[in-house]
Specification:
This protein has about 300 residues and is an alpha/beta fold. It has 3 domains: about 170 residues, Rossmann fold, CATH 3.40.50; about 35 residues, no CATH class; about 90 residues. About 50% of the residues lie in helices and about 10% in strands. The chain has a 5-stranded parallel beta sheet, with helices on both faces. It has a two-stranded antiparallel ribbon with strand order 3-4. Strand 6 and strand 7 form a beta hairpin.
Length: about 300
Amino acid sequence: MSRPARAGAEDEVRRLVPDVASLTAALDEGDYLADPGLATALFLSIRLPQPILLEGEAGVGKTEAAKALARVLGTPLYRLQCYEGIDASEALYEWNHQRQLLGIRLAEVRDLDVQEADLFGEQYLLRRPLLQAIEHPGPRPAVLLLDEIDRADAEFEAFTFELLAEAAVTIPELGTVRATHPPVVVLTSNRTRDLHDALTRRCLYHWIDYPRPERIAEIVRRRVPESAEPLALAAATAITRLRSLDMAKPPGIAEAIDWVSALAVLGVERLDAAAVEQSWGSVLKNRDDLELAWARGATWVAGTGRG
């Protein structure tokens, strides 16, 4: 990329997010509420630029932060959901073997020689999220989300180092591909295992705490505008109460939204024991957790008595 073109792209990003306050307001306009610490970390990730690792319990809004950032920048989000055993073919690229075989057969029909290089050109390349983000034409950078990087293994972590450090990836048959507009890279982790120091050194870091009930209620009201404010706050408080139990899968913000959506459809205006008993399945998604909550009682969950 030429220096004037890169400078123009950087100027465009600066115009969109000149400071932390502007980014906070833009995220808020897109219905993502970021506290000052998170907004500052995201701002630095865009403007330095540098990958950012977001850690926190499941359901605190890590993935949504990347989605909101893409909306603010008006740019594509390329998401790679990580899992144990993921490799380059899912993350970066693979070759279209069926099309390669077709090319060989067509060459045989036409009595043409086929060189190995002919079968490993870009026309046979199936691009996966990492390569798509690297090749994004701009003018603003794409957002690349490596979701739940802690679920991948150490070998896959090492595979990402070139991308994180140099905004480049290497395809053995084609060489190194460098980003014209380096993507904004967001990694998320639920801390199912510790990440390697070599990965964390390459990233900014921010821990997202679980929000207070008032903030949860505000998020819920934006996602479920037909819900009453007292109901949203009561549900948010109830979920915070449930999270105090030793649950396998504590409910998060997504469950709060699901729960209030279900209560609104049921015509519930006030959270009480009867409403809780009607809607357990909207907030708890694990039998052991259900039994744990049942033992405390619907009245305790609703906060309408001792239970």
